[in-house]
Design a protein that fits this description.
Layout: H1 3-26, H2 30-44, H3 49-85, H4 91-122, H5 125-142
Helix pairs in contact: 2-3, 3-4
């Protein structure tokens, strides 16, 4: 087999494998993603059993709350798709969609803030420092 053909074959296999693995995580349910993230947070911050129990309780409450909101998310996505399919989009239609999203976030804001405060309260000063460090690393990756 020619060297270039072999390279293309190997690159194709790697690309397909990468897409397959990436696709698996992408298709996890919100509950499964939340479980994964809670376990990762517990591991990275070295939470003790009591802290883990509180983190998992927060996660369960958040999953339940966002499950209630899921129908609204689907409706907003459907509206956005319908706008894209139109021949012409009016500014007022886009403004309406943004306003609906902002109202949705305003409704969720108190719940999210309470959960952030609740989680922060269970951490030791060392764990808070580690959490801040991890957030900074994540932010750098996103830049």
């Amino acid at each position: 087999m020619k060297r270039s053909t072999r390279f293309i074959a190997v690159a194709s296999v790697i690309a397909v494998a990468g897409l397959a693995f990436a696709g698996c995580a992408h298709h996890w349910s919100p509950e499964k993603r939340a479980d994964y993230m809670a376990k990762k947070i517990a591991s990275k911050l070295d939470l003790n059993d009591e802290q883990k129990a509180k983190l998992y309780a927060i996660k369960d409450e958040a999953v339940a709350k966002f499950k209630e909101e899921r129908a609204g998310h689907k409706a907003m996505r459907a509206e956005a798709i319908a706008l894209v399919k139109k021949d012409k989009v009016e500014r007022a239609e886009v403004e309406k969609l943004f306003s609906e999203r902002e109202e949705h976030m305003k409704r969720l804001r108190p719940f999210i803030i309470d959960k952030i405060i609740e989680f922060h309260a269970i951490l030791t000063p060392e764990q808070r420092a580690k959490a801040a460090e991890l957030m900074e690393e994540f932010q750098k990756k996103m830049e």
